[in-house]
Amino acid sequence: MHTYQPDITCTGPRWGVVDISFDGPEDLPDPFAVEFGALLSGPDGAWLRVPGFYDGGRRFVLRFSPPTVGVWTFETFSNLTALAGHRGTVEGTTPAAGMHGPIIRHPQYADRLAYADGTPYFLLAFEADWLCLLDCENRGDLARARTLVAQIAAAGFNQVVMNVYAYDVPWPKDPALKPEHEFAAPSTFPFGGSNDDPDFSVLNVAFFQHLDRIVQLLGEHGIVAHLMIYVWNKLVNWPDMYSAADNRYFDYVIARYQAFSNVVWDVSKEALTYGRCDMDYVSERIGRARCLDAYGRLLTVHDYAYCARHPDLVDVISIQTWRSDLHQGMVEVRDRHPGKPVFNIEHGGYERCPYMVFEGDYDDPVVCLERNYDCVFAGAYSTYYWQGTSWNVVIPDPMSLPEGERPRFDYYTHLATLFERYDFSLLSPVKRSSSGHCLSNGEGLTLLYLPAANSATHVTLGQGKRVQVTWFNPLTGAFEEHDPVVLRQWLGFQSPWPGQIAVLILQVVE
């Protein structure tokens, strides 16, 4: 992130963040009521209207992310003379190494995601609701957050589902929970005052400055911040819906974080579940976000009832379902929403940790992995939960735990590796076997996922084709190359690993 004073020439990499600061007047009125932003014009006639935001003291910030290489000129607007009419330029330079830009709907395959530069994006998400609050009391370092985020990235996860703010959980807590792992009831609050005694007339700028650091940290590790702007079941004392304070908070989040190319919006976790709001409110929030967000970041709602009713208003269909026949359920959802990416944001698989944090329906590490494969082989994206990081309990250094207590991040490293080797964007569900679940690119490549119950599968890919046979072990990440075979009617393939999940890969070679 680069910070500049006004009226000078600025530079910043394409898709990076450039902060340009301006001083308001000494007799500053209510800073959160100040209108401030800039109009920017760039190469090939492009232009953007970017909102600014108040950042404490007399400081206002225009936060800009050059969407292209080239020179962008700006002029600020404001209802305060001191902030209006400032001009300058921002030169967008070549993107930093490894920077692929924001994630977008795939330009060729509308039900898939990609980076803006065309690089494939296989969404593999990690739930960490309380990440926003790690190290919030420490202005000098992000020691715990850095450790956890580095381990998340090393495992191959490329999106973190997190709240902008959460306070506490309504369910019972494990008596053995150590204080250093309990992050509920924080002293910090996004508004003035505290959660118990709020002052909704102001926003706590220091809270958002800390959240800046978390979002930036995720970006440094190539991870998208999936920001759930509201959450209704984490005991947050929110202002009334549609109130001036509610609008101020929502608009501020959109204004402050839209320039981060590693951000996607989620209006609310489990938006309609708790009776706090209705579909009209969610639609109104989406409209506000669309109007304020100059960059058009992807947007979804953690609520399938809403997404199913209003698929045209979201970019990604999000669903939470714990059903046992998960693969079939995800196929049905995908079939109902052709041309939209489908994201299982919560499937009831919460891998166990040293504490009992939340009682889902599945906590065995392998079973949780199987549920992610059920989603992926239905052509959908998925999310991983470990009870030691998903909610108020956060163990910031999971890999330091004794063997047997650590999360099985390695399973997801293997899953990410599989779809680095075989581009998920090109694969769609098909029925090509007697059992198991198939993905095919329609051009000679077929991946067949065999649940643990399968000792074998029989393929129906067409006779006479010669195929290379490869087995992939989801538990070890090993690829086993076998001799090519010629397909014939009802050809069977025996799993090398009886009693566990496996992936069979068939590639036509002639």
Detailed description of the structure:
It is built from 8 helices and 30 strands. The mean pLDDT is 96. The termini are far apart. Helix 1 links the parallel strand 12 and strand 13. Helix 3 packs across helix 4 and helix 6 packs parallel to helix 7. 19% of the residues lie in helices and 30% in strands. The protein is of the alpha/beta class and 510 residues long.
- Biggest β-sheet: strands ordered side by side in the sheet: 18-17-16-13-12-22-21
- Anisotropy-based shape: globular
| Unreliable stretches | none
**CATH fold descriptor of the largest domain:** TIM Barrel
Q: What CATH architecture label of the largest domain applies?
A: Alpha-Beta Barrel
Largest sheet, strands/sense/barrel = 7 strands, parallel
